[in-house]
Every structure is written in C-alpha cells, then in structure tokens.
Amino acid sequence: MKSDGKYQEILIRERLIERGRRLFEAPRNFIEFTGKREADELLNDLEQYPHAFVIACVMDRQVPAERAWLIPYKLSLKLGDFHFSTLRLLSEREICNLMLNPEPLHRFPEEMARNLYRAVRVIEKEYGSDASKIWKGRPSSAEVVYRFLQFRGVGPKIATMAVNILARDFKIPFSDYYSIDISADVHVRRVFHRLGLVSEKPTVEGVIYRARSLYPEFPGLLDLPCWEIGRNWCKPRGPACDGCYMKDLCPFGKGEQRQ
Ligand code: SF4
C-alpha cells in the first residue's frame, strides 16, 4: 500500500500533467516575447521570418530576455527589413557595426555579432537559407535540441527552451517530446518546492531531473502550469493559496510545510 505522501505526490503530478496538456493542446496564440508589439509580430511570423526566432535564441545570453529578443526587430529597423537574403550579405564587420552603433544592442555586442554572423552561415549552409528546416518534418525533440546546440553561444538551457517554445506555443509537431526539459527558473523552483516535489533550496539541475522523473515522456509539459501557478498565486511572499487550484493537495498550502 502506498504511503499518504507518495499518493499525494501522484495526485499532484496528475493534476499538473492534466493542466499542462490542456495548455499544450490550446490553439496557437500570439506570443508576447518582448512587450513591444512590432518586435513580437516579427518573432511570431515563423512562416516568413523563422530566422528571427533562431537569432533571438542566439542573443538570449547574459542580458534580460526581453532585451535579447528585441534585437531582431532593432536590426530590422536599421536594415530596412529582416529578410534572410539581406542578412546573408552582411559581413562580420557590418554586423558588428550594427550591434555596436549608435548604441550597443547587447551587453557583449562584439561577441554577439560574431555569434550572429556564424548563425547566418549555419542557416545558409545547413538549412538552405530556411531556418524552419531546423524543425520541419516531425523530427525528434533530441534532434532539434542538438540542431540548436550547433549554433555558437547556444547551450542546453536555451536549446531546450527554444524547442519547448516551438512545441508548446508555436504548436510545431515533433515525433517525441522526451528531450524537452522544464525551464527551472526561480518561480518554477519555488512552486516545485512548495508542492513538496523537491527539497528546500532546490537547484536547477534538481528540478530538471525531478521533472524528468515525474513525466519522462515530456518533462517540459510541467513548465507552463508551474509558471502559471507562480505568476498568479504562488508569490515569493504571501502566496494566495485560497485561489490556487493545487491548494487541496499542496503541503505548503495546507500548512504542513512553512519556509
Ligand atoms: S497552494 Fe499555495 S503554496 Fe501551494 S502551489 Fe498553490 S499558491 Fe503555492
């Protein structure tokens, strides 16, 4: 017979998966990446500008995400458009000038200019100038994570985040979802801890592996429900447990655990 704690954990897992599935199966909506409508329109236009999404992922390092994801739009203003045919004609020096002047677009503009130049070369040579070939044709999630890792400056965190956004928000079909991890940011870690899924002071790696053990078929599915709970109810101080749909199962919400 299962212990009460184990049984409760199973119920928590089931409820998070159910909510995650519902969000995953919802129709594709406009995605807010930056809060600036024109910049988000460019990033949402995966059909015409798939390279804008890839380049934003490449820029997403060591600056707030909103600033990184604005870079394709800011470049498009300087260039007059953001067609790949325009990007592929730029030299590394020209990209560096665009990234540096009149104001730096990134905290590390020269390094990011190098990464951007190399990204354009990869899209040109490996994908025939069409970045959507990175994810077209129902490849496995591992294959697409691997393809993102081939871009200079992209590590496992950004690569799995990119594939998670493609699957969850853009509704791109993959043959499996095993390699899409949870994005264990501070809110997700807090919700995992309060739900009793990980111990106190959970590490990023701890939460990633816990999500893999809870739902190996698609660990990233747990991302959005936890993020949603964190944003709406599970605030760092004074969580609003009365409104939270996990309250009847959550050890913290029931007062069994206090930080
Ligand atoms: S019940 Fe309270 S502590 Fe538990 S996840 Fe919801 S808001 Fe957080």
Automatic annotation (TrEMBL):
Q: What SUPFAM superfamilies does the record point to? A: DNA-glycosylase
Would you say which domain of life the source belongs to? Bacteria
GO molecular function terms listed in the Swiss-Prot or TrEMBL record: DNA-(apurinic or apyrimidinic site) endonuclease activity; lyase activity; oxidized pyrimidine nucleobase lesion DNA N-glycosylase activity
Signal peptide residues are: none
Which keywords annotate this record?
Answer: DNA damage, DNA repair, Glycosidase, Hydrolase, Lyase
Q: Name one GO biological process term.
A: nucleotide-excision repair
Query: What InterPro entries does the record point to?
Result: DNA_glycosylase (IPR011257), HhH_base_excis_C (IPR023170)
Protein name as it appears in the record: Iron-sulfur cluster loop
> What organism is the protein native to?
Dissulfurirhabdus thermomarina
